Amino acid sequence: MRNLLTAGLLCLAAAGAGAQDLGKKTFEQCVACHSLQAGENGVGPTLHGLLGSTAGTVEGFRFSGPMKRSGIVWDEKNLAEFLRNPQALVPNTRMPFSGLTDEAALKALVGYLATATK
Asked: Burial letters for 50-70: b for 16+ Cβ neighbours within 10 Å, e otherwise?
């Protein structure tokens, strides 16, 4: 019984590591525009401190009017919604990304960002 429990825990740990790896790999699509470092804006704003922040408020980045007026406070749910289809959540946002349709990759990316942006 103990070996079965140990095997089960190892499988869960491996699945978590796999999701983290998929999230990090999926984030590679984002690094052309976004950084995880505080104060490091590029084509897109830094994502440092993302969760819990209000959309359109990163210092030193020029956001579109619709993003600034959106009033969104980023959490995992609305971040997933935005990454699935940015124009649907914030019409006329300047982010030139059509969306992430692979649900496993989307979930993994949001999970990765929840820890990597702290």
From this structure: bbebebbebeeeebeebbeeb
